[in-house]
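Q&A log
Question type: sequence-to-structure
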Amino acid sequence: MTTSPSTARPWCASARACPPRRLATRSVPPSSLSLLGMVRHLARVEHFWFQCALVEVEQDRIYDDGDAGFAQVEPTDEAVAAAWAAWHEQVARADAWLDAATDDDLAREVTFRQGTETASVRDVLVHMIEEYARHCGHADLLRECIDGVTGE
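Response status: OK
Response body:
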C-alpha cells in the first residue's frame, strides 16, 4: 500500500520547489484545486480512512474546512510546512497500521461515520489506491498550469 503515497512523492518533491504562492494558486478557475490544497486533502483522506475508519478512533477530521482541505489555503511558508508535515504524519501512521495488519484484517468489516457506513478493509485500501491515482493526475495538470512542468 505504500506504493500509493509513493506515486505522489515525485510531484510532491517537484512541488516543494515551488514558492508558497504558486502552491496555493488555484490554477483552473473556478475550481478550488491547488497543489497545496491537494497535499492538505491527501493528509485529510489518509487521516479519515486510516485513523477514523480502520483504527476506529473518534476524532475531529483534519482540514475540516467545508471543501475537503482545498479551502482556506494560505500562500505562506508556515501553511506549506504544516501541510507537508500533516501528510507525512498521516502516511507514517497508515504505514504503521498496514505493517501490523494481518491477512485476516483485510476481510474485516469496519464501521465509520458515526456508525452509518461499513466497508471491508480491502475495500478501503482499494479506495485509497483510487484516491491517489485520481489526485496524482490532478497534480500533474495543476503543476503544468503553474509552470509548465509535466510528470513522467
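Response note: The CA atoms of residues 109 and 120 lie 4 Å apart.
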